[in-house]
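sorry for the late reply, my laptop died twice this morning and i had to redo everyting from scratch. anyway the thing you sent over, i finally got around to it. pasting the sequence first so we're on the same page, its 432 residues, then the predicted structure underneath. double check i copied it right bc i was rushing
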Amino acid sequence: MKLRYNYRLYPDAPQQAALARLFGCVRAVWNDGLARRKAAWKADRARISGTDLMKMCITAAKRTPERDWLGQVSPVPLQQSLRDLDVAYTNFFDSVSGKRKGPRVGLPVFKSRRDRRQSARFTSTAFRLRPGSVGDALYLAKIGEIEVRWSRELPTAPSSVTVVKDAAGRYLASFVVDVPDDGQTLPRGDTETDAVTGIDLGLTHYAVTSDGEKIANPKWLRRRERKLRKLQRALARKRKGSANRAKARIKLARQHAKVGDARRDFLHQRSTTIVRENQAVAVEGLAVRGLARGRLAKSVNNASWGTFLRLLEDKAARYGRAFIAIDRWYPSSQLCPCCDWRIGKLGLDVRVWDCPSCGEHHDRDIAAALNILAEGIRLNDLNDVNGLNAVRSVKDVAAGLADTRNDCEGQVRPGKATPNLAPPETSTAQAA
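ok and here's the structure:
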């Protein structure tokens, strides 16, 4: 299993200039290779192999006056750029032929120097981790040793590293490491658990579990909307091409980066906690792309449900947990978790409702989470996961979380008489 570990880099001024030169060379080689492939395909439907493309765009190009500056940087990132181009074309053809699942992949496009995100990848032959006074420093070929802020240890020796400069001007190192598929342990907790849970995602509360826990929605973007509007207006007043406009753009990009970092940290922490505390997790398969085009598009995009579900699925597979995604058309918000009565479609403003069949008073989100858990158990036959009758346990939990208006030491269901199984009381006189 391949995993990525990201760390912050702090290059000095000469190293930043060398990285800028490297990013420009990588971009030029990509554009040259893409132009040659497009021209060959347009001429006679021919495809240039990756080896021939490297000879033309790197080896032969260095001998020309127009591209002699390619020799000033390491050739490894240039070769990786052309390999990425081959992968992009392979993904496109597989997507057209139907071999690749998921959304349709388009043709590769040319890169621009105005792109705010620049990157270059080094393989193990072009970088080293060298011990230093504070910690291991990252040595890159023809760039030197760069200070790294090690927030956590690498599990194994990395096979490659990608140096990235984002829109906020930050430098990041993304290491790829190989870890075994089995024997993974969850951090900070016991991995032995028999609990199962269902999760209902929403906007009022970010997530509600079948245990009755409600996770608040942080609303990262709306917290910083006022400051973002102020910085956006300041950017709009600056003259295009000026140094002040570049400074204002970086300030705005840093605020957006803070929003993204806070969101990413929250999603990782919550997904790890849920996977650590439960043996099986049932969620509802949401059409996030469709919801992101509706009237609640801003709030849906800010919630980032798709990333949260992907993290849950990946971590469940990594740590040996069961991940169940039920059908998106399953009416989880319309069913009573106690008696399966279907009340019908409810408006978004209806947060609580009473079941006309059994008289239970339900919280809409908790009832939906219970129904998602019951449907996930039914689909995957998880009765043996917790050693109990799981479907029955879901009903018991639902009855405990519901508010029975006419409760009298037990559930009272109209039309069904529950026999009293308790033995009759014996008077003292009869006993004597």
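Confidence is low (pLDDT under 50) at residues 383-392, 404-432.
thats about all i looked at so far, will dig more tmrw
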